Amino acid sequence: MYSQYTVNTKYPNYAYSDLPSAGLSSFGHSGRVLSCCMLARQHEETGDYERACAVLHEWWLLGEQPHLDDLNQQETAELLLRIGSLTARLGSARKLKGMYKEAAGFLSSSSTLFLLLGMHEKVAEAQSELAHCYWREGDFTAARRKLHCALASLPGTATDLRIDILVRSAAVEWSSARLHEALRILNEAAPLVAQSDNHFTCGCFHTNLATTLKNLGVAEKRVDYTDRALIEFEAALFHFESISNTQHCAIVENNIGSLLFMLGSFAEAHHHLEQAHRLFTNLGDDVRCAAGVDETRARLLLAEERYEEAERVINDAVTTLKESGHEASLAEALTTQGVVLARVGRHSDALTTLDDARLVAERCGDRETAGRAVLTQLEELFGYVKDDDRGELCARADRLLATSQHSATLERLRSCQEHVRATDEARERARAAHEEELRRAAFYDPLSGLANQALFTEHIQQAMGRSKRIADYKFAVLFLDVDRFKQINDNFGHMAGDQLLIQIARRLAACVREVDTLARLTGDKFAILLDDINDETEAIYVAQRIQGALVVPFSFEEFETFTTMSIGIALSTTGNELPEEFLRDADLAMYTAKSKGKGRHEVYDQTMRAHAVEQFKLEGDLRRAVTQQEFLLNYQPIYEMKTRRLAGFEALIRWPHPGQSGKFISPAEFIPVAEETGLIVPIGEWVLEEACRQMREWQAQYPATKHLTMSVNLSGKQLAQAELTNQIKKILRRTGFDPRLLKLEITESVMMENAEVAIEQLRALRTLGVELSIDDFGTGYSSLSYLHRFPATTLKVDRSFVNRIGEGDGNDEIIRTIVTLARNLKMKVVAEGVETEEQWQYLTTLNCEYLQGYLLSRPLNVASATEILGHYTCEDLPSATVSCVAKNI
């Protein structure tokens, strides 16, 4: 685990002077680890991260390494966490991005060890530190993901750590210009801060809140935000002074001075900046921060037209940074020095200084500072640049913009560059680039770079023309759709979804010839025009080749995923007259492939059109059925295993076939249509009200049934409705049904489509008193990290597992695991689809609490269910044997 880390010569060799070496030898390795960690924490609490990091690194990397056998896993994880955390902070202090990758190595190992130990608070701390590394590297998406994981694994008692994580989440948001989201997060953390007595945590919170308010005040020109920012900075200063954290006090003083400078309070700004400079100077080692204060002081003096003092202050800062070797900070100071020289009229010196600033910044990978240097040259010194050098200056701006993250400085640089290009040659280049951009926007997809639908349709038109002119010329159109793309987008974010589409586009390009046309139509839909083929076997071969190319997983930064494509094929021999008709037929064939299980291909034929017409007719009939309430409900009994008594019913919808008495349209046919059209919402509302009404009627008729429950399925469309809770509340009020006897069943896959929204909706439903069941458990793709957060009371084992009991393929152990999991989570278990004595016996051995299936009873119409309830009281419900139950049903 540790051999990958080597000595880093960037750290100063003074750490041994801090170590109590005489006492360490008697402690053994574990004692030395503890002693060094304590010493490092002392330095960290005073803000001296460099010395704290050096204590651990020097001791760890220069010959005193502990061995795995000498440390237990917790000690090892603690040490790795401290080293990783301090390395990241040292990287921030020195602006050395390479140190974040080193820190991430320590932190990832620490997180893994803590996870194995079940120490969730420590896992959250390690994940938060990893997020800090990603944030500093500019990967805000990865940072958000790590912070989300940290919050998810955090115990409710860890208040200070929760505040730290929320503060970091806010920092990520304002770094990515989402200031209002940052403010929302910080406001969420405020009540926790009010309860905390940790001055360091509170100080960090107030500093971040003040920074967010300051940025919002500048962006929206709101004085109330900037005034509040000053108050928050003062609060932060109070907390840091309470623990004598000199470094953070200096940082806050510098922020206050900068804010007052921006507000025009120059005298007060000078006072705070001088105080910050004094504090940083007293720290001794933090020359970079002291020089940063000097930069602000120089700009303040420049605004007051005190040019000589401004030049002296910035010259001192540049000299100090050159001697200390802090190149990243030197680039910023040189930029400020260039501004000062330009304002006092020393244009040649200013150009040279700004060129030096740009070179140093580019060497450090700091595009922001390099952009400011070039921006200053363009805004203030462009008129003093020789004509031969103007083109080079604009080219520098182009290179910076091509690799920028579109920050405010670089956006200003873009605007300035467009303004200063006054030559005819520059205007011609801009015009040509604009025309090319318009052409690509008209005919190419901006994400994948493939042809778009307009260009693809044009190529089909050309192929149709060739088929009329050339004998035996054939072509084929393939319509491709990524399976389960919505789940990937929802679970991993739209950025991951875009990356997946880009990778898919590359693999598709490798499966076709240069003469073929590959296009991205919309979203996750692609199309291929196979030009000049012999017959349909060539199109089928390409489809099979594409499926083979998708077998290899798609890799992202921290995860891998698999996906498939449903492919429809339309041949030129169909005789269509318009390009759109080929796309329509291929699309129809694709949906046929998707309905048959996904990850396959289908060739279009006329029967598909007929089926589509039938589906269209079915949709019309379904709309009429909703309006005229043509549905009815059947009720399948659910029995309690322990007492073998009737526990309740599950309501199942049935639709009598229009015009064919005694026949029913299968739910497998009309439910998907209802889901696709949105009709499932009014249907689901009717089912819920009718089931509650019927059960309430039975309770009034047969008092012994007052304990029976009613289970009703909820669809994903219903769960997504904001008014669902109010709708159910109204139904319960209208029917008078006891909410404690109502069980709402939601499938596992529906819950995971948007887990966070589902959790909030389900919690709202639980406030009504209703029970919640996870239906078809084990068939979806839920994460166990979410399962314990769902406020469900029951797990339903899917019939696909129950039907395979006794087959010896590990299926029995899966059922045992589900039952054990439910028991550990204090949840009840219902096994559905029980059809044989063998299934009954095995589930009995597992003490499965409730059973449902054809062995016990088929779904019953109202009359049959009423007859059963009329024959039995609470005491004489079937309880002897399974066969007795089956016979009575």
Description of the molecule:
- It is a single chain.
- With 889 residues, the protein is of the alpha/beta class.
- The strands form 3 sheets. The chain has an 8-stranded mixed β-barrel. The chain has a 5-stranded mixed β-sheet with strand order 2-3-1-6-7, with helices on both faces. Strands 4-5 form a two-stranded antiparallel ribbon.
- Helix 26 (579-595) links the parallel strand 6 and strand 7.
- Helix 27 crosses helix 28 and helix 29 runs parallel beside helix 31 (724-735).
- The model is unreliable at 1-28 and 874-889 (pLDDT under 50).
Distance between the termini: 64 Å
Rounded Rg: 35 Å
> Looking at the structure, what is the overall shape?
globular
Q: List the uncertain runs.
A: 1-28, 874-889
Largest sheet: 8 strands, mixed, barrel
Strand order of the largest sheet: 8-9-11-12-13-14-15-16
Please state the structural category: alpha/beta
Q: State the share of residues found in helices, binned by percent.
A: 55-70%
Output the number of helix runs: 39
Q: Indicate the mean pLDDT.
A: 77
- How many E strands? 16
Q: Provide the β-strand percentage band.
A: 5-15%
